[in-house]
Design brief:
single chain, mainly beta, seven-stranded mixed beta sheet, four-stranded antiparallel beta sheet
């Protein structure tokens, strides 16, 4: 089992920045690929970014490429999502997820563990 807890969400003006953190506990964090997803009201959960177990492979959704940066610190069992140049359309609940094979994927169904989420609201 892996337990995930997100933090760092909040209310920010358009153009601002937030840094989300996801702290993991349980089984060896460094074995897992980690992903960030988001879900806005009335919409399906969508892929944001993913990072493999070593941090050497990263993938982003086109909608956040160049604005968001995913990173991980295996010594701290934590994955981060730095979000810059935020837009109102980035407003959503953000979730981190862990994938047991260690390989990145944009498919939510491939992830084994999920955090409860943290709300990000971007005002115009």
């Amino acid at each position: 089992q892996v337990q995930l807890v997100e933090s760092g969400g909040g209310l920010v003006q358009a153009g601002g920045s937030l840094r989300l953190s996801c702290a993991a506990s349980g089984r060896t964090f460094s074995n897992y690929a980690m992903g960030w997803f988001r879900q806005a009201p009335g919409k399906e959960r969508e892929f944001v970014a993913a990072i493999n177990w070593s941090g050497l492979r990263i993938r982003y959704a086109d909608s956040v490429k160049g604005r968001f940066t995913i990173s991980r610190d295996n010594a701290k069992n934590t994955v981060y999502l730095q979000m810059n140049s935020l837009k109102p359309e980035d407003t959503a609940a953000y979730y981190c997820a862990a994938e047991a094979t260690g390989w990145i994927t944009p498919l939510a169904g491939e992830y084994d563990y999920w955090g409860p989420g943290t709300q990000v609201t971007v005002s115009s």
